[in-house]
Amino acid sequence: MRAVQHVQDRVVLITGAGQRLGAATAARMMEEGWHVLVHVRSSVDAAQALLDQAEATYGESRGSLLVADLTDDEGLQHVVGKVLEHPLVQAHGLAGIVHNASFYSQSSFEETSLEAYRSLNRLHMEAPYMLTQSLLPALERANGSVVAVVDTSWGRAWEGLAHYTSSKAGLRQLMLNLAGELAGRVRVNCLAPGAIMAAEWEAEHFAKVLEKVPLGRSGQAEDIAAGIHFLLTNGTITGNVLHVDGGWTLNE
Ligand SMILES: NC(=O)c1ccc[n+]([C@@H]2O[C@H](COP(=O)([O-])OP(=O)(O)OC[C@H]3O[C@@H](n4cnc5c(N)ncnc54)[C@H](OP(=O)(O)O)[C@@H]3O)[C@@H](O)[C@H]2O)c1
Q1: Which of 36, 106, 225, 233 sits 20 to 30 Å CA-CA off 147?
Q2: What's the whole-model pTM score?
Q3: Pocket around ligand 1: residues whose beta carbon is below 6 Å from it?
């Protein structure tokens, strides 16, 4: 039987965690006592402020910053190296990965270049694949788990979002497949947010979307963070897609 790991020894890597839903998740995990490896691409100042705030609140460091572009092979290697050389990971393994980094934009099929599509596939599918594969031994050592943040678009047609929705569907299937293949070694789940936090370009459209949500409102970033914390810590759940969407999927 594995020894019970103390919460302060638990390390989670969260990608794209400098702002918005990723930052809320990092804050929640730090509040729970975990050490959070806060990955960002460009939101360095926001992430540092998040880490400083946690240190001031809890009287100790609860995280560290990792900077990399995840569409870049060197960037991915950099993240893996930094995670594996972290003293807490060396001592106890890696208790979680949250694949959260994303790029959400709307453009018609004809206007979306193959280059843009490849970049999104790299961010949503190849980066989670490579990070999970490279960090698997460290995850196993900590009896860890993986959560991918997908969305509720799966199985339906969306205007101008073929590039985004197909790469998220790939991520979802990758995770469900891994849940089966790695069962008994590492748990793997997805969290699917509904309409939680509008991107700048969809602010107007967002109100219309909310009309279709049974609860009639968007959720809070903290609801996503709570769902991710739940999936990371419930030792019996694997291969699940947790919808945090106010019932949106009921109405489409
Ligand atoms: N917001 C919603 O209502 C909603 C709805 C459904 C699903 N989701 C999913 O929930 C997750 C979080 O949503 P969000 O709206 O908070 O996400 P977001 O703001 O669109 O993106 C999160 C972070 O991804 C990082 N990122 C983008 N391109 C990257 C790259 N090439 N390399 C590394 N990092 C990169 C950015 O980091 P930097 O800022 O450091 O550049 C960004 O802050 C996403 O996976 C999203 O698809 C969100």
Answers
A1: 106
A2: 0.97
A3: 16, 18-22, 40-43, 69-71, 100-104, 123, 149, 151, 193, 195-197
- The predicted structure's pLDDT at residue 252: 65
**CA–CA separation, 252 vs 247, rounded Å?**
10
Res 206: pLDDT: 86
CATH label of the domain that carries residue 92: 3.40.50.720
Query: Ligand 1 center to residue 102 CA distance, Å?
Result: 4
**What average pLDDT is seen over the chain?**
95
The rounded Å distance from CA 2 to ligand 1 centre is 35
| Residue 2 resides in a domain | no
Distance 152 CA to ligand 1 centre (A): 15
Q: What's the total number of domains in the chain? A: 1
Minimum-distance ligand 1 atom for the alpha carbon of 19:
43
CB 43 within 8 A of CB 68: no
